[in-house]
Write the structure tokens for this entry.
Amino acid sequence: MMRSDLLPSLMLLLLRATRGQFPRECTTLETLRSAECCPAHPTGRPGDRCGDTLGRGTCQPLLVDMLPHGPPFSLDAQDERALWPVQSFFNRSCVCAPQYWGARCDLCKWGRTGPACLDRAQPLTRRNMLALTSEERSRVVAAIDLSKRAIHPDIVIATQRRESILGPDGQTPQFEDVTVYNLFVWTHYYSVMPTYVGNGTTVGGVDFSHEGPAFLTWHRFHLLQLERDIQTMLGDPNFALPFWDFTSGQGCDLCMDDLFGAQHPSDREALSPLSVFSRWRVVCEDVASYNSLGTICNNTEGGPIRRNPGGNVGRPMVMNLPEPDDVRQCLSTERFDTPPFYSTSDDSFRNALEGYAEPNGHYNSSVRTLHNLAHLYLNGTASQTHISPNDPLFVLLHTFTDAIFDEWLRIHNPNTSEFPAEDAPIGHNQAFYMVPFWPPVRNVDMFVTAPENLGYKYEVIWPGTPPFIFGIAWIGSLRSPLHTSLQRLMSQICTVVMTDTNHNTNISF
Ligand SMILES: *[C@@H]1O[C@H](CO)[C@@H](O)[C@H](O)[C@H]1NC(C)=O
Ligand SMILES: *[C@@H]1O[C@H](CO)[C@@H](O)[C@H](O)[C@H]1NC(C)=O
Ligand SMILES: *[C@@H]1O[C@H](CO)[C@@H](O)[C@H](O)[C@H]1NC(C)=O
Ligand SMILES: *[C@@H]1O[C@H](CO)[C@@H](O)[C@H](O)[C@H]1NC(C)=O
Ligand SMILES: *[C@@H]1O[C@H](CO)[C@@H](O)[C@H](O)[C@H]1NC(C)=O
Ligand SMILES: *[C@@H]1O[C@H](CO)[C@@H](O)[C@H](O)[C@H]1NC(C)=O
């Protein structure tokens, strides 16, 4: 099943990748009972924890954010995700020196490279999928497709909630292998699942990754994790996720067989059999059984991806994608987020980009725009929160959303204090460790500009740039390699122009 030339890189992955829930060696009965997840660095001396014998990190108590969260959630004592990860899983973990990262401090922090992780890496460039050459496109599609099949060599997922995690006999931890892509879907599901209160009953109204300020920071880390996992899987540290400009005015322009799948000729809600993604099967769809049994989604796959772009005739408002002016308007919203830091926030950049307010930030309960609208437009798997990442277009929809977030950070240069420290919904305060990523990472760690701090940048031509640049963008859309390189060159020039003019013109570029 696995190509043999991939084996060396998968061995490497065995040593290096560590993000998600949880490293395999932290899921033994003893480790779970000790509440300490401090694995040894692969080249550390006997007894090593966190690379401490190499000076990379130390095993320390985890200090969690105790500031109060806001309403409506009040089932903290019954939900294993409250005070993540201390309340239900681990209260000690590795704390790495600033240049290192990973469950064992075995990786370089984002944007760092070299044997001691002290060198600054060139930021990776996340580009428009349509600006890639045909070879680059096939490589992206093949990499994402492989990630659906490649078992994550390091991370395993829980298949039961905490109260049943040791199995019926109390001695058998309930974790299992998961593929790289299914882990990406599982983490999202885990962050949105309702609270199980026992006796076949679940209570909703809780969401650790949507409808609050953490929406942007959570999904940013989610993508960073997938990108690193794919880099490690391929043995290629330069692999970058591309984005889908869902404001191109061309509908689902990535819905083609050599990209993310055209429509099936006779079943409007299915993918064309010529697309590799028509063979994908979704995970996390058995919500009714998880909710009544108190179980969790696992790596067992079910039905195919459903998608009917623009096909929701019962809801005309979501039959068209957002427009460039919507992006321009949300970028000019001054405040990152506003009380109650929820899907009802008014004048909030986050709520406008997430899509529960008008693009200019004005709250209007009947509006769906930007990110939400792009999801709803796809009318299928990608439109249902708990399973949406099963459609690989999710990845590119979210890189574009993240690009808008990064552009907003660059323009507005916010103080950290603009991210609420308290009273946001559970999971959404700035110092909260995002559920369920491992090693623990806080919302505020992702509230920084990507090129300077996270090792990647976007190549986007933002609305409002001079018309001649748009001309080049259009030429680029003809997709010959020459035009593509011309577009790349022009967008670099354009970035410089935007940076220079932005100081005195605020957001009008
Ligand atoms: C961490 O968890 C262990 C095991 O449940 C417990 O014995 C210990 O007291 C906890 N430590 C702290 C600081 O909460
Ligand atoms: C559990 O649910 C059953 C059926 O709905 C009910 O009869 C029983 O009283 C419940 N038990 C508890 C402890 O709530
Ligand atoms: C995995 O999920 C499937 C489908 O919901 C379920 O039938 C199966 O029992 C689960 N497996 C484990 C190990 O929990
Ligand atoms: C897709 O559109 C149809 C027709 O309006 C609607 O009934 C269905 O609920 C939509 N499905 C999703 C998942 O949005
Ligand atoms: C809210 O949005 C709807 C749909 O676009 C519109 O008809 C309505 O006038 C808006 N309400 C306000 C108060 O702006
Ligand atoms: C950020 O905000 C805090 C609290 O309002 C303030 O004390 C601090 O000086 C601000 N920092 C900068 C760089 O503006």
In short: Confidence is low (pLDDT under 50) at residues 1-18, 467-484, 486-509. The chain is about 30% helix and 10% strand.
